[in-house]
Structure formats: structure tokens, C-alpha cells
Amino acid sequence: MRVMGFGTQARQFLAIGWVCAAVALGLGIAALGVGGPSFSRPGLSPALIAVALGAGWLLVLAGSLRPAGVSHPARGPLLLVAGFAWFAAEAANPDGAAPVVFSLGLLLRNAWPALIAHAALLGVSFGVSGRVRLALGGLAYLTNLGLLGLLPTIAFDPAASRCTLCPTNVFAVWSDPALVASATRLGFLVQACWVAAVATVIVTAVWRGSRTERRREAILVAGTIAALAGVAIEGVASISRAALSNDRLDIALWTAQGAGLMALAIGTIGRWNRGRQTRQRVARVALDVVASPVAGELAGALGKILDDSTLEVLYALDDGRLVDSAGEIRLQRPADDKSTEVLRDGRTLAILVHRADLADDPARMSDAVAAARLALENERLLAQSHARMTELRTSRSEVVAAAAAERRRLERDLHDGSQQRLLALAIELAIVREHAATDGGPGRHVDAVAKGLESEVRAALADLRELAHGIVPRALADDGLGPAIEELAERSRIPLDIRAMPSARLPQAIEAAAYLVILRTTQDAVVRRASVAAFIIDDRLVIELELEVTGPLPESLLVELGDQSGALGGKIVSIGPTSGRATVRTEIPCAS
């Protein structure tokens, strides 16, 4: 977990401080070895001094850098402390060391292998349970800080052991050479066991990863195993004498340890540098995406960086559903081994769908996600907006379709019901009037009454027919948009010229919307004459109305027309009036 509120500049100053301290300590330990070469492994050899200094300095540098990828945040401090502990191992030089320095060297000379093992276990957490890491790490610390560090230190009194060159051991509590020898032998043996276990865990975990991950981590893993193996072999070789020495075998194994630590540090620095480069590349892409958001652009950019042309980004809505960058709902959730979940405050922000082997390369995924988080947030908002717009457009289309169906039902009921009954009544009244005139009697009175009733019935029939046509004409449902507009032109109160109409039938909702746009426009009081043309361009029905008007078209009319077309994903454009003329252009998506 990153520490919030600790700025990048402060981190850089702290890293520089650690490196400077390591340089000073390393030079001091090297000078101590040069002053007492008989008890120093590097001695006077420039090559061995370079190994001693290089291993410690590189470990401190690697530990000072900001951890990259999924590497546990504790790995940096562990490598940092291991670098200083590496120098401490050479501080237990009885020839010229101050008592405190000598005592710290006795206490910490075997500490660095446990720290390296702990850092390695945290770095290969894939396929390794927390209990295994805890057990092996605890055993390593107990062995190297307890059996090989604290116990031999507090039971070693240089004066009682007749070490004439040794300074005072400030941590000595009593003198028990037998206890020191037994603890050291047992410590060397247990150390070899836990080193073998840690090496097995590391190799197994790395082998389970992808080929790319194994190739990328080869130097780091090889350096770790080489350093720990050198420690284990040297310890086993020193069991008989119950102490580490600086003979030819010890120096060779110590050199292997130093080389392994340098490789480990170089691999860690390389991992950090790859993560930094990845973050920089993704950050540039993220800024471009935020500056000019285009649906799907972020997925393509991430795919290039992660070498996966199939990579896709899905976003989680508030109700848990997943949508793509265009807002399309995805009903099927991607498989766990081909997806990476991005969390924010414990909630799913996005899901990256990728090749299966990228799931075994969590460092790259983590770096890419960390750098692209701002762009992910931005595109998620766009995807949510697209999804809501799609749902709104769908619901509006359903409302329009339902309204059109209801209009057709009303028109059919009026035509088949009320109109037929009124028409039958008008016919019967005409028959009654004729019979009354033929039979004589009060013919004039009956004839007048019947004639008046017949006129009222026919007027009601005309009004009802007009109402039915205003809802939806029968011609629209039966014959299509063209015949319905021709019928509208015949009974329109204003001259209506038809310039063009589509010959093919369109979906009922499209035809109903187009008819209502033309009907409502030509019925408005400010319109004195109109001409209409409807045609299909690129799967869009275009309706152009050229109008002669006495004033501007009412805002309420334009809103109504916009609702009719907008419910189907269309749009309306109104121009004018200019010199008594106005234009209304409507475009509605359709399948021709």
C-alpha cells in the first residue's frame, strides 16, 4: 500500500540520503578490511573489494527505488536493509574495528540472507500461499538472527575466549564457547534447509508463470538463488569448524554471493525501469485519450503497450452490469484467467479482457492500470453515458412504437365500430325519409326532421373520419407512407405538393413518425403552403418540408417534432423564416 501524502520529491531526497549513507558505510568497511586484511574476505584485492562494494551499493539503490508492479511495498525496504546488512557482515573484523562496530558485525553478519529470502518470497507471490511465505520467512529470521546472530553474540566474550585482537563485545552477557559452537552448527544446518525450501518455492512459482515472465525475471531469480545457494553451501562447509572463515573456498562462495546479489539488484532495477517506462508510455496515451476521448481508443492503446491486439476494456455500471466503451451491454462475464479486474474503493471500476498469459504477468498489468487509471475513469463515465443514452433511446422507441400501435388500434376501432354504426344510421334515416314521403301523411314534417338528423349524422361521421385520419390513416398501415401522404394532401386545408416519396415500405414506427412530422407541420396555423419530399440516404429517411409561413414556427411544434424523430435516434433541423419561407428537415435512421 502506498503511503498517502508522501510526495515524490521527498521520496527522491530520502533515496539519495540512503544511497549516500551506503556509500559512506561501504567505503568505511572497505577501509577496515584494507587495514586488517587477515580477517577480511575482500582483503587487498581490488576485484573482491569491487564485489563487496558493488553488492551493497546496488542493493541499497534497488531498495531506494519506488517498488514497481505487484512487488510488495516491503520489498524495497527489505533490499535496502539487506544492503546495509551485507556491509555489516564485514564489520566483525577484530583488527581495528571499534567495539560497537565489531559487536554489530557479530550480531548482523548473517542477517542479509533472511532479508533477501523474505524479499524474494514477496516478489513471487503468484501460486504461493501466505502461510508458506510466513513459515519460511519466520524460519529464516529465527535461524539467521537467532541461532546465527543473537545467541552466539550474547554468549561470546572475546577476553574469556582468548581472542587477543578482538575488541570488547558490548552485547556479551556470558561466555559459553560450547553453546556458541552448537548454535552455529545447528544454524548452518537449518539455514541450508530453509534456503533449499525457498529456492524450490521461487523456481516453482516462476515456472508457473508465462514464458515472458520467466524471461523477464531470469536475472533477478538467478541472482537470488545464486546468493542464497552460496550462503547455504558455505554454511554446510563450515559446520565442522562452527564458524565462517576466509579460506579459498569461503572467498569463492562469498564472491558468488556478492555476484548473485548484484544480479538480484540489477534485475530489480530493471523491473523498476520497465515499470517506469510502461507508466510513462501509458500516461502519454492516457493524456491523449482524456484530451480527445474516442470510444475504444484506450483499449487499443493498452493493447499496443501490452502486446495484445485483442485486449478489450469493459466497465461496470452501478447495477453491476458490464458495458463496453460504446455503452453496449455485455451479458456474459469474461473468464477469470483471461481478465484483470480494476478496483476503486473496493468496487469494480473496469475489467481488462486479454490473453490468458497476461494474467501471469501481473507486474506489467499493474503498471499499465496504474498509469491509465485516469483514462479508465474518464472512459468509464463516457461508457456509462452511452449506456444511459442507449437505454433512453430504446425506451423512447418503445414508447413511440406503443403509441403508434395504440393509434392504429383506435383508428381500427373507430373505423370498424363507430363509423360503421353512424353510416348505417344515416342510411336508415334516408330510407325512413323516402318511405314517409311515399306513404303520405305528415310528410313534410317527417321529411324535414329526418333530413336534419341525416345531416347531423353525416357531419358526425365526417368529424369522426377526420379524427381517425388524425390518429393514423388506414392507408399508412395498409399501403405505406407515400399513399398516406397523398391522402393527406387531398384533404389538407392548405396546398400540399408532394415532390418525392420512398417506394419501399419502412418499419411501422418509422412511417408513423414521418407521417406525424408532416401532418403536424402542415396543420400549424402559420403554414400557408407546403411541399414535401421524403427519400432514403445511407439508411436514413430524410424528410424535407419547404413551407410558406406567416411567422416563425412555434417552439412547441419544434419540440414535438424533435421528440417524434429523437425517439428513433433521429434529429430535426429548422431554418427560417426568411422572406416568408421556412424549411424543416428531419432525419430518422432506418433499414431500407
Q: Averaged pLDDT, please?
A: 78
Residue runs with pLDDT of under 50 for 5 or more positions: 1-7
Major sheet size, sense and barrel closure = 5 strands, antiparallel
Q: What's the number of structural domains?
A: 3
Number of H/I helices: 17
Question: What Rg is obtained from the alpha carbons, in whole angstroms?
Answer: 44 Å
* Strand content bin: 5-15%
Q: State the total count of DSSP E strands.
A: 10
Distance between the termini: 58 Å
Helix- and strand-based class? alpha+beta
Question: SSE string, helix = H, strand = E?
Answer: HHHHHHHHHHHEEEEEHHHHEHEEHEE
Shape: rod-shaped
> Largest beta sheet: what is the strand line-up?
3-2-1-5-4
Helix content: 55-70%
TL;DR of this structure?
This protein has 592 residues and is α+β, with helices and mostly antiparallel strands.
